[in-house]
Amino acid sequence: MIEEKLIAGVQAAVKSLYGMDTPAQQVQLQKTRDEFEGHLTVVVFPFVKAARKSPEMVGNEIGQYLVENLGDTVAKFNVVKGFLNLVISDAPWIALLNTINADEKYGFQPVTNKSPLVMIEYSSPNTNKPLHLGHVRNNLLGSALARIVEANGNKVVKTNIVNDRGIHICKSMLAWLKWGNGETPESSGKKGDHLIGDYYVAFDKHYREEVKELVAQGMDEEKAKQEAPLIKEAHEMLVKWEKNDPEVRGLWKKMNEWVYAGFDETYKMMGVSFDKIYYESDTYLEGKEKVIEGLEKGLFYRRDDGSVWADLTGEGLDEKLLLRSDGTSVYMTQDIGTAKLRFQDFPIDKMIYVVGNEQNYHFQVLSILLDKLGFKWGKDLVHFSYGMVELPNGKMKSREGTVVDADDLMAAMIADAYEASKERVKQTEMPEDEAREVARKVGLGALKYFILKVDARKNMLFNPEESIDFNGNTGPFIQYTYARIASILRKAKEQGIETDNAQLSTLNAQLSVKETELIQKLTQFPAAVRQAGTDYSPSGICNYCYELTKAFNQFYHDFSILGETNPELRQFRLSLAKAVAKVISLGMGLLGIEMPERM
Fold first, then answer.
1. Helices H, strands E: what count in the chain?
2. pLDDT tens, 94-127?
3. Which of 95, 312, 369, 469 is in the most buried spot, having the most CB atoms within 10 Å?
4. Domain 2-88 homologous superfamily, CATH
5. Is 396 in a helix, a strand, or coil?
6. What is the CATH number of domain 406-590?
7. Cα dihedral across residues 531, 533, 537, 541: positive or negative
8. For the whole prediction, is pTM greater than 0.85?
């Protein structure tokens, strides 16, 4: 790498000129600012004291040393105050371009048997409703994070915890029994998760009517909510479920299977998958056992009413309920149980939970409790906390049926992409089936990119119209640039120009500033992947892909590729374009975004 060679050169220069041993980390290299000539800049201030000379003089002396001793790398230099700006020779850039094109997984770290194992939990749906816009952000963040963490040399296990028990599940079941008339996904033509979601909405509608009627009869509203016949029936059903009533359990299993089939369709369309799925109905009892174990070890305490608590006041927090007085579990207990099963299943080195920021306190407490209970990764668990996502017309409410459904959203994005493509090109230029496939990639790419480009910690407004724009910081803009490069490479092949395995040698023409800047941008991809892994930040990959795409378009605007008359320079530019397409594809692939070969 150019940077490594320059750092070693600066170390040698400082030793030779000033007799000073300099550790590599003390040599500060940065990209040269746009207003100055150069590619990389050395900050010379750390050497001024030992040299006993002005920063400008130190910069000139080191620069001259590098030109004389690293002439194959440093072509020339200039000094601005305490900054030594280096112009890199063409040969190292060409060598780097060859390296990039030869490396199938450029920028990625290999995964080995000794790699740490990172488990990432995301999705966490309820089986009483379909996935909605909030789930879309969760799944896209979790899935992208899994790819980024793996690209940084870690083994990754992607997990999902399905919330398949509780009063909300019983509400859908009860509504189906009362008003379903035996309706099934097959008889209705609906996806199973949509069908069950309809009954969840139906329950709430009838329940509200009952509460309203009781209030009209003079009952206090809070009491009416508890005394309404429907909610009482739902609680009775939950008790039967807890007691393993065969009829209730049979219905629960049947309806959940409908929902899981629906979820699978949604996940497939979204490009999301899991290595292991856990179910709350399996984990809550494990959690109770672990809490009782902690109670016996004196980690927790029992109150007079029989409830079990953790006293976290010593950690600056409060007291946390772990088991209710009737022995039933809470969410914290279930998470402890899930952790227990995961720890039995996998040798986890790090655990990452992708959950909204409304659960920040929950995971602060969970981390402490898991550490107390002896889970080695508990203290260092990562809560990948993200903000809410809304549409321009406001918030979503599941009970009222006003949720932005994930399936509907994806279908609308694909339809919008199809209509947008019809406006851009004549439909006759592309077979219908290919046009539909391109629309799928572009529509879903627009959705994924728009959501992932925002810092995950921030709340965001998803605007479908903005996301599908073919200009600006959008998925379609980047996809279109990739398709443009693919078209150039196809035309080159048609003209008999080799593009697959061409290795470049030194050119008899000088590279332009835009060409070397574009290669320099390509060399920053590995660092972008590392930074995204360190920060748990898919948005960092989005930013990099957008900046690379802009740089290529600026180059393409100023320079001809296939029209270049110098064969060597034409070959170089084809190789450069190919490398850009490759890195765009790798980067967008980390985000789960597919690249169309034609648009």
1. 22, 14
2. 999 999 999 999 999 999 999 999 999 999 999 9
3. 369
4. Arginyl tRNA synthetase N-terminal domain (3.30.1360.70)
5. coil
6. 1.10.730.10
7. positive
8. yes
